[in-house]
């Protein structure tokens, strides 16, 4: 439920450092390629934002109130005076987190097996695109001379705030369903974190190592995950998608920039 706000702030953070590109990069061809990869990133996040806003509207109609929206809006308002590179560092942090979740989803079909088919497709489509652009904000941050300390500080803060937001909203959703204090809910939480990955559970086991990898000095998003997985998923579901836009190569890796639109 927090995604549309998050995705808007990712887009804003990338746009916010545009003026620094001219200052840091003298090579015209490099600037053009970089801006094309940023345009692809923005196109993907804007599409996610659009689709997740529709999803949130459905949840709202079912009586689920977006409790964290106001908190996040106030927070983003406070950050407006921050240096744009700090906001970009926060985007790098969230992008790392979404890339980890995407890897789990794409690698482990059991993690999404119990989902309603349309929701499963939404999440796996989102996972595919997050994997495609996972290094864009990071490479931009590095290219514009972003500091290691700022990168790590933003990560610590972002992970704390995200867990807090998710905890508050999930508690609210469970209360709305009358399920907050049920023993079965506690059990489901325990298995979600500590259960067996082969059953799509045990997120602690599946995510701790990649979460810690971000602290390494020589960390790069392409060190993690299996690059073949998003390709395999995209090919397997080629008939479900219409690639609506292809830009330059993202400049940094294996994927071309593309936004996939569902055809069905
Ligand atoms: Fe996204
Ligand atoms: Fe993203």
Short précis:
By secondary structure, the chain is mainly alpha-helical. It has eleven helices and two strands. It has helices at residues 3-16, 18-24, 28-61, 69-79, 84-107, 117-132, 136-143, 148-176, 183-194, 203-213, 228-236; strands spanning 241-249, 256-262.
* Physical arrangement of strands within the biggest beta sheet: 1-2
The structural class is mainly alpha
Q: How many distinct domains?
A: 1
Share of residues in strands: 5-15%
Q: Low-confidence stretches at least 5 residues in length (pLDDT < 50)?
A: 248-257
Mean pLDDT: 90
Q: Give the overall silhouette.
A: globular
Roughly how many Å is the radius of gyration?
Answer: 19 Å
Work out the helicity level. Answer: 55-70%
In whole angstroms, the N-to-C terminal distance is 23 Å
Enumerate how many helices there are, as a single number: 11
Number of DSSP strands? Answer: 2
**Sheet with the most strands, sense and barrel status:** 2 strands, antiparallel
């Amino acid at each position: 439920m927090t995604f549309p706000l998050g995705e808007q702030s990712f887009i804003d953070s990338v746009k916010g450092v545009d003026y620094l590109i001219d200052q840091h990069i003298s090579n015209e061809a490099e600037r053009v390629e970089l801006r094309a990869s940023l345009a692809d990133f923005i196109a993907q996040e804007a599409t996610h934002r659009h689709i997740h806003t529709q999803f949130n509207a459905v949840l709202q109609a079912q009586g689920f109130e977006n409790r964290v929206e106001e908190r996040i809006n106030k927070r983003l308002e406070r950050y407006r005076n921050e240096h744009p590179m700090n906001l970009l560092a926060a985007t790098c942090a969230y992008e790392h987190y979404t890339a980890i979740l995407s890897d789990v989803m794409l690698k482990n079909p059991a993690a999404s097996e119990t989902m309603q088919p349309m929701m499963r497709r939404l999440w796996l489509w989102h996972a595919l695109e997050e994997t495609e652009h996972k290094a864009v904000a990071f490479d931009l941050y590095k290219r514009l001379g972003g500091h290691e300390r700022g990168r790590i500080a933003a990560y610590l803060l972002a992970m704390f705030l995200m867990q807090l937001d998710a905890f508050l909203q999930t508690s609210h959703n469970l209360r709305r369903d009358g399920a907050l204090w049920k023993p079965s809910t506690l059990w489901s939480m325990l298995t979600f974190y500590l259960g067996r990955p082969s059953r799509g559970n045990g997120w602690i086991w599946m995510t701790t190592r990649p979460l810690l990898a971000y602290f390494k000095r020589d960390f790069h998003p392409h060190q993690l995950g299996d690059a073949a997985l998003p390709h395999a998923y995209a090919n397997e579901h080629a008939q479900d998608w219409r690639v609506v836009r292809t830009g330059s190569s993202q400049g940094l890796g294996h994927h071309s920039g593309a936004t996939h639109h569902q055809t069905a």
